[in-house]
Amino acid sequence: MRPRGSVSNPPNRFEALRYAPSDEEAAAQAERNPETRLLPDPSRTIVATNQSPDVGFDASVNPYRGCEHACSYCYARPSHEYLGFSAGLDFETRILVKERAPELLRQRLLTKSWKPQVVALSGVTDPYQPAERRLELTRRCLGVLAEFRNPVAIITKSFLVTRDVDRLGELARLDAASVAVSITTLDPVLQRRMEPYAAPPAKRLRAIERLAEAGIPVGVMVAPVIPGLTDHEAPKILEAAAAAGARFAGRVVLRLPHGVAELFEAWLAEHYPERREKVMSRIRAVRGGRAYDARFGVRQRGTGRWADEMAALFELARRRADIAERGPTLSTAHFRRPAAAGDQLSLL
Questions:
Q1: How many CB atoms lie within 10 A of CB 334?
Q2: Cα 77 from Cα 319, distance rounded (Å)
């Protein structure tokens, strides 16, 4: 049976009518363990914008909705409910593919209303999840961004990002690209259970090394930091990432919006029952007694004594590893539209 990050497929919170399966039916559904299906996404636009003060970017491109990496804690799971799916197994087995993403991105950058700015790949799900190996939507989007010389910032858990060092390098030479590799834990057993189809820790460190060797600004994102489960690993993660070539580091404390809290607690009960109470207690301690606090300014960091201690440990480890607390400021100075580039494009 294929490992999954979710142990159930809970009802969609927006659906007024719900079917409650019997215990026998629920067991049969779990036994079937649905295979992943790629579904066409008919979106007519590709660049999403946000005004969140604690995200770090205003524009993003998400070639995929849902994510086969199947991370048990993923804060993006509830986004699948807007599509009529479940935040559980549906999120990791019903992947919507924006087949026209590169063309839509090119159309947007050609418009006079587009102001050159950093585009994040991506803001929700991983742009280098397994389907990307075959479909190459992210790679083709990078080709568009390189054509326009528009800066891009990537965050991923996948070694597949190293495939695109050519296009990332082209942008990096113009100070227009950076990559953050997300590392949650260095424990391969925990990682495999928690992030079934993401790259193992050693391969993520190799990805940092490959990107650094190619001259691409690369950092590590210690995210999510899970209180009571992975928070103690920050120093070792930062040390290993710095040794591999990471130039900057960031962190995000575990976020469990909407039904993700129940899904994650169920995952704990199945894989780490002896830690379940401790972990959930620590999570509530940094979230004001709740599973999640969505307020801007605190949702990424948490509050209270445990949050302060995690922040202090991370900051001390970051300074010891001698890496910056944020990535480079990317440049829009070289942006161009093909129509304005004249014959230069034909020479590239």
A1: 15
A2: 34
Q: How many CB atoms lie within 10 A of CB 25?
A: 11
Q: Name residues whose C-beta falls within 8 Å of residue 55's C-beta, 6 or more positions apart in sequence.
A: 123
231 sits in which H/E element: none
Structure confidence at residue 59 as a pLDDT band (50, 70, 90): very high
Q: What is the mean pLDDT of residues 92-103?
A: 97
Which token pair is 148?
Answer: 């326009």
Q: What is the pLDDT of residues 176-189, one digit of tens each?
A: 999 999 999 999 99
Q: Look-up: residue for tokens 């590709």? A: 46
CA distance 292 to 137: 33
Burial class of residue 175 (count of CB atoms within 10 Å of its CB; 0-12, 13-18, 19+):
middle
Cα 80–chain centre separation: 15
Distance CA(69)–CA(86), nearest Å, equals 16
d(CA 92, CA 72): 10
Do β-strands 94-97 and 119-121 pair in parallel, antiparallel, or remain unpaired?
A: unpaired
Tokens of 256: 């469990």
| Of 317, 161, 178, 326, residue with least CA distance to 243 | 317
pLDDT confidence tier of residue 20, bands split at 50, 70 and 90: low
User: pLDDT tens for residues 325-341?
Assistant: 999 999 999 999 986 44
State which H helix or E strand residue 262 sits in: helix 260-271
How confident is the model over 98-134, as pLDDT tens digits?
A: 999 999 999 999 999 999 999 999 889 999 999 999 9
- Cα separation values, 6 from 68, 218, 295, Å: 11, 31, 26
Structure tokens of 231? 């928070």
Burial of 165 (0-12, 13-18, 19+ CB in 10 A): middle
What is the Cα 163 distance to its own chain's centre?
Answer: 18
Q: At what angle do helices 276-285 and 260-271 cross, to 10 degrees?
A: 150
